[in-house]
């Protein structure tokens, strides 16, 4: 019997703690193989600093239910690109010293693309030194850009927030009965899955997304303004969704090409984005003379647990639970992913994927899901994404406020 250690990494989501709850419950239910359940605070950096806490309190009734509805990363997070094995062996030696001290036999990292790189390197090191620690990645990202898996936990809830934001903004902006434009900026550096979700706002009763600009399509300002002008002649309100990562034909992010805008990078070396909605707003206002408002959803789109998708909450939990099962079966270096069995009725199965085939691979929206003119999506995308936003979880409130899991440390 060995102990279990779980961490969370990268940007949070509305359901990342549902995956954590799945890992914890999986550990409890596999008591013949799993001993104590530990959490590492603030990602892999917390492990190196031995910030390890017991999660045994979640055996108490109702605690896991609260954790499932708690947004953001309960254990804290970090953004750290692990060094190559041959460049800094001491880093890995330190981590495995901590594993040995706490008798860890199962290590789980809940995260996105860069976090899967962590899982890959950790499992490779374990194999290199002959360690029997099972290293498992649990998928998470609102960007929906992990390879192989049909979709990723976290995406459905964020997509639901984007779609409902568009629908409600449409109602808000049409009250004055005058020509206007709304520009909504959504997250998405190189993959536009989240921005594309704005199109889910359209149905037989409401047209709430007229133009959708994705990073998969080269952005050309003159063509964009011509499209806005044409739509504005046909209807009073124009609703636009733009990805923060839209770029020109040379691959330069629109925000990077603006003089006077500071060029900043995050800890992974990625260009810091944000603010493109305001830039597009100014171009529409100055170029077409239309009244425009820009809305940047920012971190709300990844933490709005009170509007989460029940499908997303449940699948996030199931992925975490399945990951523990893989570890107990002796697997390592794998990720529980989703394979879609059918669309109607919607059904998926969870299967183990080799993390080597996922780490550092970015899944973008396929061409067949993008409208031919580049300013929208096709029915194939709508058919793909609609089931992921469905259902409303039964949430616990007190005094009108959503309740969260209390800290156990």
How would you describe this protein?
Strand 10 and strand 11 form a beta hairpin. Helix 1 (16-29) runs parallel beside helix 11 (310-328) and helix 8 (221-234) packs across helix 9 (276-288). The chain has a 5-stranded mixed sheet with strand order 3-2-1-4-5, with helices on both faces. The chain is an alpha/beta fold. The model has no long low-confidence stretch (mean pLDDT 95). The protein is built from 12 helices and 13 strands. It is elongated and about 70 Å long. The two termini are 25 Å apart.
Task: Considering the chains and any ligands shown, give keywords for the structure.
409 residues, alpha/beta, five-stranded mixed β-sheet, four-stranded parallel β-sheet, 12 helices
Itemize the secondary structure elements and their pairings.
Layout: E1 2-8, H1 16-29, E2 34-40, H2 43-48, E3 52-54, H3 63-68, H4 89-101, E4 104-111, H5 113-129, E5 134-139, H6 155-173, E6 180-186, H7 193-196, E7 211-213, H8 221-234, E8 237-243, H9 276-288, E9 292-296, H10 300-303, H11 310-328, E10 334-343, E11 346-354, H12 379-385, E12 397-398, E13 401-402
Parallel strand pairs: 1-2, 1-4, 4-5, 6-8, 6-9, 7-8
Antiparallel strand pairs: 2-3, 10-11, 12-13
Helix pairs in contact: 1-11, 8-9
């Amino acid at each position: 019997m060995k102990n279990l250690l779980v961490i969370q990494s990268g940007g949070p989501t509305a359901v990342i703690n549902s995956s954590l709850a799945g890992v914890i419950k999986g550990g409890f239910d596999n008591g013949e193989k799993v001993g104590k359940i530990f959490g590492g605070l603030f990602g892999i950096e917390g492990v190196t600093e031995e910030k390890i806490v017991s999660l045994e309190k979640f055996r108490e009734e109702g605690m896991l239910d609260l954790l499932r509805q708690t947004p953001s990363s309960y254990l804290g997070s970090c953004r750290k690109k692990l060094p190559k094995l041959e460049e800094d062996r001491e880093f890995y030696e330190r981590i495995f010293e901590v594993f040995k001290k706490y008798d860890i036999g199962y290590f789980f990292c809940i995260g996105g693309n860069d976090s899967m790189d962590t899982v890959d390197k950790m499992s490779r090191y374990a194999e290199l030194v002959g360690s029997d620690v099972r290293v498992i990645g649990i998928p998470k990202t609102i960007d929906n850009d992990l390879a192989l898996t049909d979709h990723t936990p976290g995406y459905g809830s964020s997509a639901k927030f984007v779609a409902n934001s568009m629908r409600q903004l449409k109602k808000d902006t049409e009250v004055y009965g005058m020509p206007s434009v709304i520009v909504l900026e959504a997250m998405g550096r190189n993959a536009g899955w989240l921005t594309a979700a704005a199109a889910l706002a359209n149905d037989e009763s409401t047209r709430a997304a007229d133009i959708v600009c994705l990073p998969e399509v080269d952005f050309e300002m003159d063509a964009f303004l011509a499209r806005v002008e044409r739509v504005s002649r046909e209807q009073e309100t124009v609703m636009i969704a733009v990805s923060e990562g839209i770029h020109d034909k040379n691959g330069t992010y629109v925000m990077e090409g603006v003089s006077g805008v500071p060029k900043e990078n995050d800890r992974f070396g990625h260009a810091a984005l944000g603010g493109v909605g305001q830039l597009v707003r100014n171009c529409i206002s100055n170029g077409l003379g239309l009244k425009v408002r820009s809305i940047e959803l920012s971190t709300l789109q990844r933490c709005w647990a009170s509007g989460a998708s029940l499908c997303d909450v449940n699948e996030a939990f199931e992925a975490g639970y399945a990951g523990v099962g893989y570890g107990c079966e002796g697997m390592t270096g794998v990720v529980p992913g989703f394979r879609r069995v059918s669309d109607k009725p919607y059904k998926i199965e969870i299967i183990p994927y080799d993390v080597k085939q996922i780490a550092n691979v970015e899944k973008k929206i396929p061409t067949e899901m993008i409208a031919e003119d580049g300013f929208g999506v096709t029915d194939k995308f709508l058919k793909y994404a609609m089931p992921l936003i469905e259902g409303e979880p039964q949430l616990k409130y007190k005094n009108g406020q959503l309740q969260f899991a209390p800290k156990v440390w």
